[in-house]
Amino acid sequence: MDLRGQVAVVTGSSRGIGRAIALRCAAAGARLVLTARDEEGLRATAERIGEQGGSARVLPADLTDGQQVERMIEEVDRNASQIDLLVNNAGRLTAIGPSWLVDPRDWMRDISDNISMTYLCTWAVVPRMIARKEGRIVNLVGGGTRGPFPYAAAYGCSKAAIMGFTESLAEELEGTGVRAFALRPGLVRTRMTEQFLDTEAGRKWMSRLGDRLQRGEDVPPRRAAELVVALATGRYDAASGRLLDATAEAPEGTIVN
Description:
Oligomer: single chain
Order of helices and strands: EHEHEHEHEHEHHHHEE
CATH architecture: 3-Layer(aba) Sandwich
CATH topology: Rossmann fold
Radius of gyration: 17 Å
Number of domains: 1
Strand content: 5-15%
Structural class: alpha/beta
CATH superfamily: NAD(P)-binding Rossmann-like Domain
Strand order of the largest sheet: 3-2-1-4-5-6-7-8
Number of strands: 8
Largest sheet: 8 strands, mixed
Helix content: 40-55%
């Protein structure tokens, strides 16, 4: 799959799934813009992209801050003059436990940050895509998207909201040449999910997922990365507004109604 000539912005690309997506897009020929709060992690991702012969730019930003997001995207404009792909991967999961026992500040922050990061980056990028009459947005979802996610309810609520946003956005974008998709990566072993093994709250309340990680039942991040590249080629443009599942064995994943 060839993404030569495309510019891809990947949020939360300092590690984990975001890093895997960035590396795979770069391997397919895209020029990468890497953004997150963690500048050191972003530079590590950029270094790996450079080692494989790719091109990446590091633009650290607090993606919950609309002004920082706008400045970051304006900087992309000045240097690339286009954004073909936006991958909204950045997210957080802090409030673990029964909803009435967790810190309300953590509960609300999980919802607010996850939704605002996705929305603000989309808000900044979509007008530029519409002006060019092309572009694709991929929003990462997860536990809670289509059902309950007990003991991580705030995270689950945020992902259900992002799914709803994606469906509405896709309809709003009809006829513009811009498409929006939701992607479920499955249980990938990352710093976020390792909380289920390494923290008292995670071991107590998320043991079912921690046990799966210990048994090696996690999903390789390459599946989400391969699916993002397939989406960026336009192969699944007819599925705009739909949920695609990277837990399937096939690299292209499964379209979920």
